[in-house]
Automatic annotation (TrEMBL):
GO MF entries: kinase activity
Main location: membrane
Ranges for domain HAMP: 330-382
Transmembrane segments: 12-32, 309-328
Gene3D superfamilies assigned: 6.10.340.10, Histidine kinase-like ATPase, C-terminal domain, PAS domain
SUPFAM superfamilies attached to this UniProt entry: ATPase domain of HSP90 chaperone/DNA topoisomerase II/histidine kinase, HAMP domain-like
Record protein name field: Sensor histidine kinase
Entry's localization field: Cell membrane
Annotated membrane topology: Multi-pass membrane protein
UniProt keywords, alphabetically: Cell membrane, Kinase, Membrane, Phosphoprotein, Transferase, Transmembrane, Transmembrane helix
Keyword Cell cycle: no
InterPro entries recorded: Bact_2-comp_sensor_kinase, HAMP_dom, HATPase_C_sf, HATPase_dom, Sig_transdc_His_kin_internal
Length: 613
């Protein structure tokens, strides 16, 4: 393919634009990249400080809760109950539960939560109190069996332990909480401080969520708490489409693990196709990870504004360069464009040159020489055209005379009259075979000529091939048998004439003549959707189907394939490439030719050139 040829004017415009845009773009890219790095580093430093602050507050909070748990564990009345054996009667059990419930309420109602600045919901699970299960008067005191089957219970150490997130119902409202558990020992028991109860404290999760929200660096960022397994416990972003939506993603877990392994606190990566600044802070005592996800598009908001200003400056420079190029290139490119425009009209045979250039410079000389050259070309073309027209007219007249002579030789009326006369003589002298053959021959030519029409009914095509088969049967005798199966409801469909006889002739010459014994030919028509499939089957010698299909596809063929190729080409030329002739090998031997044509009752929409009737 030839390369794109630019005009002088376009070249000048491009040169000016490149000379301004190239250095401006390079400087802008360098400035933008460096400033983005500086801004990102500062944001990253701020995020790391925020995550450290979150860690500090969390640890302080947990220390306060630990103090709360210790004070409750040292309560004399609580110690007396958990150090004593289970009462023998139901009244004693109920009295014990009521006392424990009142103790837990006293800590909650005395606003002990002021130490932690958030609501605390304590629950007590007492060891060796199976009768507690039969009493349902409180939601704070239970038998230890209520939690023994929990997965986290079997993994509890003796010190204060964070179980994870949970939900409790208070005043008919479901509240998300962070559950913390501590094992209590019976200090007044006879044994050496045996395990006597489990104290759990539920903390309103909104405290942690608000804490995480306060330390978000941008509106679209999120801060999440991850446990040791990489699962998200709480997140500052509670919307379903926020960054926490990837909390179960293996991508996040792998990123956090890789950052821990490489001792990295910040990392750039893509999450859900969005560029993110990922920062982490590992809390050693808790084995938690504080994860911060910050979209880079929010980090670089100020940089984007600066970038917009740069783009505006580049556009102004481009417009200035364009205006300068237009002014400087106008005097040079205008004459050349006029010459090119004049040359383009010559492609359409217009040799009348209308060019006006009054300046006496190199373009003036070029235009004058161009006009003289076009006048000479115009004169030569006119001479050549007259010569070619005369030659064509002579050839057409010769062909027309030859065609008329040929038509006179095969005048249909003369041919029919001659055949009728032969038929009368055969009947007069009692020679029925000659009469039948002449009748079939007469019908063959009558339907074949079809008054010069190229489109006939399927019924006429059937009669034509039937006449041909009858003539051939007289020739071959008992060696040739045939059947025709044409449904009556499709006999008036239109088709191209002379599409069956050449295929039947191939079946006889190349199939049946080459085998011993009786031969048969079957013609049948079936409907397939909007198409007619006309099958010509024989039990002859068969053929190579691939070679026959190649014969139809190539442009040059031997004379032996002319008839079949002509049928295929006429069908495709008139009805389209999806119609035509195909060949198939019969299972019992022989060949089947299938002709596909559309089901048409009128030729409206098709261009048909009929001969003279």
């Amino acid at each position: 393919m030839r390369g794109i040829q630019l005009s002088i004017k376009n070249k000048l415009i491009i040169y000016f634009l490149i000379s301004i845009l190239l250095p401006t773009t390079i400087i802008s890219i360098i400035f933008y990249t460096r400033s983005s790095e500086i801004i990102t580093d500062k944001i990253n430093l701020s995020i790391v400080k925020n995550l450290s602050s979150v860690e500090s507050i969390l640890l302080q909070k947990l220390d306060s809760i630990n103090d709360f748990s210790v004070l409750m564990a040292l309560n004399p009345e609580l110690q007396h109950i958990i150090s004593s054996p289970q009462p023998d009667n139901a009244d004693g059990i109920i009295d014990e539960i009521v006392k424990l419930d009142r103790i837990l309420d006293s800590y909650y109602l005395s606003d002990f939560s002021a130490l932690t600045k958030t609501a605390l919901y304590p629950k007590l699970f007492v060891v060796n109190r199976p009768q507690y299960k039969n009493v349902n008067i409180t939601d704070k005191v239970f038998d230890i069996s209520a939690v023994e089957n929990q997965k986290w219970y079997s993994q509890l150490p003796n010190q204060l332990t964070i179980v994870g997130t949970d939900h409790i119902t208070m005043f008919g409202k479901k509240i998300q909480t962070m559950k913390i558990a501590k094992k209590l020992v019976a200090l007044r028991a006879a044994d050496m401080a045996p395990y006597a109860a489990l104290l759990t404290t539920d903390i309103d999760a909104n405290f942690f969520v608000d804490l995480l929200k306060n330390y978000k660096i941008t509106p679209g960022s999120s801060i999440s708490l991850l446990n040791a397994d990489g699962d998200v416990l709480l997140s500052s972003d509670l919307s379903p489409d926020g960054p926490h939506s990837v909390k179960d993603s293996e991508v996040i877990r792998k990123l956090v693990k890789d950052m821990h392994d490489q001792a990295e606190q910040s990392h750039m990566d893509h999450i859900d196709g969005k560029p993110m600044l990922i920062s982490t802070n590992y809390i050693v005592p808790l084995k938690w990870t504080i994860l911060s996800l910050t979209p880079l598009n929010e980090v670089n908001i100020e940089q984007k504004k600066l970038n917009q200003i740069m783009v505006f400056v580049i556009v102004i420079c481009m417009l200035f360069a364009l205006l300068t190029a237009l002014v400087l290139s106008g005097n040079i490119s205008k004459p050349i464009l006029a010459l090119v425009k004049s040359m383009s009209t010559i492609e359409h045979g217009n040799f009348d040159i209308k060019l006006r250039y009054r300046k006496k410079d190199e373009f003036g000389i070029l235009f004058e020489q161009y006009k003289q050259m076009m006048e000479k070309i115009k004169d030569l073309v006119e001479r050549l055209y007259v010569s070619e027209v005369s030659k064509k007219e002579a050839e057409l007249q010769a062909k027309d005379a030859e065609l008329k002579a040929l038509q006179a030789q095969i005048n249909p009326h003369f041919l029919y009259n001659a055949l009728d006369s032969i038929n009368l003589y055969a009947m007069r002298y009692n020679v029925p075979n000659i009469s039948d053959m002449v009748s079939s021959l007469s019908n063959f030519f009558r339907y074949g000529l079809s008054k010069g029409k190229s489109i006939i009914t399927l019924n006429d095509e059937k009669k034509h091939v039937e006449s041909y088969l009858e003539i051939q049967k007289m020739r071959f005798g008992g060696k040739l048998n045939y059947t025709l199966d044409f449904p009556n409801d499709i006999l008036q469909c239109l088709t191209v004439k002379l599409i069956l006889q050449p295929l039947v002739e191939n079946s006889i010459i190349h199939g049946i003549q080459k085998v011993e014994g009786e031969g048969w030919i079957r013609l049948s028509v079936v409907k397939q959707g909007e198409k007619l499939q006309i099958s010509i089957s024989d039990n002859g010698a068969g053929a190579n189907v691939e070679e026959m299909h190649e014969m139809l596809d190539f442009e040059s063929h031997t004379s032996k394939s002319f008839g079949t190729r002509n049928v295929n080409e006429r069908i495709k030329r008139l009805f389209g490439m999806k119609y035509g002739v195909r060949f198939y090998i019969n299972e019992g031997g022989g060949l089947t030719s299938v002709v596909e044509i559309p089901i048409l009752w009128t030729m409206e929409g098709y261009h048909v050139e009929d001969g003279i009737s």
